[in-house]
Amino acid sequence: MRNNSTISERSQNKSNPYKMWLLTPPVILVTVISDIIIWNGVFPSLDLTWKWMVCLPTAIILCLMVAVISGHGGNRSLQLFIGSLLFLAVPKLVFSVFAWPFGWVCGLIVSAIVIILFTYATTYGWLKLTVKKEDWVFPDLPDAFDGYRILQISDFHIGTFANHPEFIEKMVTTANSLNADLIVFTGDLINTSVSEIKPFTQMLSQLKAKDGKLSIMGNHDYMDTQNVVRAEKEMGWNLLMDSHTEMHKGQHTIYVIGVEHTGKPPFESRGNLKQALAGVPNDAFKILLTHDPSHWRMEVLDTTDIQLSLSGHTHGGQLKIGWFSPAGLICREIAGIYTQQGRMLYVSMGVGGRIPFRLGAWPEINLLTLRNKLS
What we know:
Distance between the termini: 28 Å
Number of strands: 13
Structural class: alpha/beta
Strand order of the largest sheet: 1-7-8-9-10-12-11
Oligomer: single chain
Strand content: 15-25%
Order of helices and strands: EHHHHHEEHEHEHEEEHEHEEEE
Helix content: 25-40%
Shape: elongated
């Protein structure tokens, strides 16, 4: 395995990728609509004192939102804010929508169901590790790589598991039991600081694959760039930053390309795909590691012939019921397989998230088997 990698000067700068102010209009809209419906539709005869009491959850939510936008309280403020949306704003909206046409009892029952589901998501759902297995056929895959097994791991957000090291230990044990040829990590190792990694360094160093462990940076990793780069090197991960590496079997070679974070705003695009592909033969079988799946349509499809792209970033919205995920409101590619022009994108829902919440979009690792013919 040969690697061609450099750390760009731009990547060494810290940046804050969180543009929480973008949440302001929808949060205000949802909370105010709920209050108006309850005031005028569900309980129109409430006196003024009780009407103001109905607004108390809205006041709490807006205060927490201001704290997050202003940067006060760090991750704790963000978790409290998201918690207030899940356990105050959403149940209140559900109550108002169902209570207005069907009566307050119906609204109460439905909102109680929502609270029970969200409670499960924040206590058990985010620790429910799953293994997804996929078999794909690529006619131009070299014969020597027929049956090649890649384990994709994405979006650790490792600090979120500070009080649950047993989950990471279970994930590492499960990953190693799959006997993958290659492990790839598609970004977001941390939430905000490399200090989150320290309790888990030994565990993550124990990940094993025959052809090694490759990784790329996610948008969160730029909160502490140099230290994340150093930590991944210490764990034996081969970090690709606008670079590529060759995987050899006999006389056959495939290329794995890794780019720095590139995708839709509000997160800064830093990658240079042209640089990463420099020296890769045109007729080679190529696998691209790119954190944000939106990069696939932005650049990969139109400017390259890369056969397979692997991404993460979306977490599947951390909430997925059937085909619905809130991530679908802002992302075209949310989770799973996407094909176009004979090329494929696979989006992992990842292991973690900055908020300990998963419902339907369970934490996952992905075992991907490549074939060059139907078995």
